[in-house]
Amino acid sequence: MNIINKYTLFLMLLIGIAVTFSACERDELPNGGEPRIMYVRVTNPTQSDSLLGGAFLNGLVAIMGENLGSTVEVWFNDQPARVNPAYVTDRSILVNVPANSPEEVNDLLTLVFKNGNRLEYFFPINIPEPDLVTMENEFIGTGELAVIHGDFFFAPLSVKMANGIEANVVEITKTKLSFTIPDGAEPGPITVQTNFGTVASGFHYRDERNTILNFDDKTAAGSWRSGRLENNPQHSLDGNYLVLRGKLNKNERAEDFAGGGFVMQFWGHTRLPEGNFITGDPADYVLKFEAKVIDWYGSYLNICWSPWSNNGNQEYWANLNARGLWRPWEKANAPYNTNGKWVTITIPMSEMRYAQSVPGDIVYTDMKFDKTKAGSLSFWMVGTPVADASNVEVFIDNVRIVEK
């Protein structure tokens, strides 16, 4: 036997030994070394035995199995997830479900390995129906761009007004939807439809429910200070609007003057049957109005409630009922405006919970709202301790109380 044959036999022997050891190692690995998904569970260690039959977008899940260490890609339907190698082991993979909606739904979780092999596992993604939270301006005009904020806005998507007229969708993101108000749109809820559900909004376009003041046919006329109204085409939303305008100093409690003012009082008995604005649980209701703010700093809008039969000025001075406060400038401690636009303001009735001290520095303390003393309503802009001839120019329209 020549030397080449000797080396050949030696190499074959080594190869045989290696193959034998490799086969033994594979035999010792679970599932013969082949990757396998056993189940998917939540990542909360206190709920480690909670198995999942599906997950929501962007949810963190743990994929449990065997021989998963060579995973390089994870897909949910047709959307890739971000894989962090630090969270990939032979027994588990921690990964977030992609936040984007799939274009093609196959209800499969797919793993791709370094060698190009793939492993599929039935795992549906629960994509919620659209969630319509707020509309920037519920009284936006025909032909103007309306904006709804919420979640789960995924194309293809349609928007229909209350009378079924379809709107032209301009832009869609997951949390924001823009569309043009069509000709002939009537007041009422707006319906949004995606591949994952159809939902009608809780808010209403051009809301007609329980309107207290629109400053056109529903005014505060007959009350002591019915407020200054204007109808400037440059600013008007839909007719007359209330104007609160002027400058306020520290703790100043001013009233009205020519060309401006800080007060609007509506006494229910001047126009409405005896009763109160709310009959159910106040926690189920919100106060809404549209506002356009030109400039505002250093004062609070006091939203004062009092009995239907009130015919004096005590709703502000005597705390006949708990009041609300609107103070959007305070968060940034800087002048506030609405960028030339009308916007819908929503204040939960649960926030009507303040009393005001008089006189001295203005201090607000807690007070319980009484729905049986809520048949009259006043707005009063009052300077705070930080006011110093600070500007106020605020327009208000369409004051209403509606269910959440």
Features:
404 residues; mainly beta; Immunoglobulin-like; 3 domains; 7-stranded antiparallel β-sheet; 30 strands; disordered N terminus
What does this structure look like?
With 404 residues, this protein is mainly beta. The chain folds into three domains: 97 residues, Sandwich (Immunoglobulin-like), CATH 2.60.40.10; 75 residues, Immunoglobulin-like (Sandwich), CATH 2.60.40; 193 residues, Galactose-binding lectin (Jelly Rolls, Sandwich), CATH 2.60.120.430. Strands 10-11-14-13-12-15-16 form a seven-stranded antiparallel β-sheet, with no helix packed on it. Strands 17, 18, 19, 23, 26 and 30 form a six-stranded antiparallel β-sheet that branches. The longest helix is centred in the N-terminal third of the chain and has 26 residues.
Main pleated sheet = 7 strands, antiparallel
Task: Sum up the overall morphology in one term.
Answer: elongated
CATH class bucket of the largest domain: Mainly Beta
Residues in helices, as a percent range: under 10%
Strand order of the largest sheet: 10-11-14-13-12-15-16
- Can you count the helices? 2
Strand content: 35-45%
Q: In angstroms, what is the radius of gyration?
A: 32 Å
**Helix/strand class:** mainly beta
Q: What gap, in angstroms, lies between the N and C termini?
A: 95 Å
The CATH superfamily of the largest domain is Galactose-binding lectin
Please provide the count of β strands: 30
Domain module tally: 3
| Overall pLDDT | 90
CATH architecture of the largest domain: Sandwich
CATH-derived topology of the largest domain: Jelly Rolls
Q: In terms of per-residue confidence, which ranges show pLDDT below 50 for 5 or more consecutive residues?
A: 1-26
